[in-house]
Amino acid sequence: MTPDTRDSRPTLAVWKFASCDGCQLSLLDCEDELLALAGAVRIAHFTEMSRTSLPGPYDISLVEGSITTPDDALRIQEVRASSRHLVTIGACATAGGVQGLRNFAASGEYAGLVYAHPEYLRTLDTSTPISAHVKVDFELHGCPIDRGQLLEVLTAFLAGRRPVVPGHSVCQECKSRGTVCLVVRDATSCLGPVTRSGCGALCPSLGRGCFGCFGPSDSANTASLSRQLAEHGASDLELARLFRTFNANAPEFLHQSVALGAASPGRDRTTSESGAGS
Amino acid sequence: MTHGSQRERTIGVEGISRVEGEGSLRVSVRDGTVTNVALEIFEPPRYFEAMLVGRHFSEAPDITARICGICPVAYQMSACAAMEDACGVVVDERVTALRRLLYCGEWIQSHALHVYLLHAPDFLGCADAVELAERDRPAIERGLALKRTGNLLMETVGGRAIHPVNVRVGGFYRAPDRDVIAALGEPLRHARDAALATVRWVGGFDFPDVVGDYRYVALRHPEHYAIERGRPTSADGSDFDVAHFADLVVEEHVERSTALHARLGGRHYLTGPLARYAINGDVLPSIARQAARDVGLATRVDNPFQSIVVRAVELVAACDEALSLVEAYEPPDPPATEVAPRAGIGTGATEAPRGLLFHQYEIDERGTILRARIVPPTSQNQLTIEDDLRRVAQAGLDLDDHDLQWRCEQAVRNHDPCISCAAHFLDLEVVRS
To answer: Which residue of A141, A154, B77, B288 shows the fewest CB atoms closer than 10 Å?
Structure first.
């Protein structure tokens, strides 16, 4: 990729913050489309893929990961300033990710548990989504994102239209693929009614309750679901754990886990199961 | 340093954070001699060992999968092994076989990604695979097809390729039907041919003349190339029980890295393809051994740049092994052994594509995690990678800064650090005085 000033293709940049790299890997997992995509856009900055890094501005920036360090809080400002469209990809970038569980811990507590010398580290006490720092043009959810949805988002921005990514729940996907409801069938705890679609209702099709990878759906009624699941025997601790994983700080999930009264399930070792079903 | 006393003070949960991503590199040269090399890793720490405390033991596979999007299966498998060990459960052999099949998918996906998209461009002077495709499109298409088959395997057994959802402590949520697994035979036969072509392709690359001084450590299983289980073994033949790993491997927190540096018996060591090949070459499938012989690969490889050939040989092995598992497939019934928690400590180790991955948990009688320790391959390999850099930089001092920088980046990518963008992001500073 030699820089070519006559190249009129739109430019694409991919940025990483605190994350597992799985969402940017989704781009490389588009095995059938990757070379075509690399023809349609100029991949100007994508560290996981190329040594080349061209200077901005960029037409589209895909941002993976959450903000967890003072340096990254500054770097995201630079990314925003050099991007025409900024699209966040995945639960870390849209909701703070699994590392957002630190938001429930006392300041500095986690670093001391993991590192011998916390004083070597320069980190923040919180993990926050990109939208808490800069304006975001589109958020693509999922842990990980769905590569079909990623291609839709890229295609839409290249065509100058709004991406078509539904905000309805996993329940609807179960119905359309004919999966019998696990809550009804055997009282499985399932976040399907309040979780955004996109995975294709994978877990219920395997006989497993949804555990919320895609975060809250549009108009998610988490309180009602919690009451229903509690009637089926789920304890408050079990439910709080369900809401506190990869999208723990998405507002609807956060409010519900707080309402369930559990201290962070990541921290409180004394929480009893005795409140089951209450 | 004072890690020993610090560990005592920190309630014994001292472990490490994940290492994918950003690193930088400094090489100092004085009077024609490399005097200092430092690989700095400043990937933001994510504190997984701390986040796991208080969680239910059944959540460990899904939570730890999020450490790495490239090798989530490795995390799931080591977590399951450790929890089953803690609870005194031995899973059905059919579950083990299905886990091995899933793991083969991850090896194929990850090795194809590394060989074709991340590593090969270095040998051919290309900035990336897109540029390489302009020169040799069939090669990149072959790599993408291989990668697609690895992903297909993971989707079929695990539900999806990144962060599979079908894995649980004790086994699987649902065992795939026979015909679904049988349908993998055809693409796997193509993939095995593509893997053989890969060995021939990378076997013909030019390799800088560098020989490392490695102390190899890998899991070993008497019957097959160790992936999902085995006993930690050194190339000199000494071995030890996985349960002793946490006592024998000492990790140190140094200022320049958010990955802890691991030592075994006071010395650094190397895990990953070079180690596995040296230790387990005798139990490679014969087709993989033959492919290695055909390109003149010795039974032990100490040139780190040839790791790409070893990785290709492992691609052949993973495809061949997956084919055998597909042909012998019996759905486990039930798909999982019920695992009841009990108070105790459990350990588990498996071979991630880039090296040995160790997990240890202490849980209480309700299954609540009290302590977690995770030692990933990159932490174990980091000191050896620095050693390599010293050697490679010394041997390449006649190169100009641009070429020396590239050569050093390539030397880091030789070990497929988790993940290679750590190397892609290298900011090399050569201080010549």
So the answer is: A154
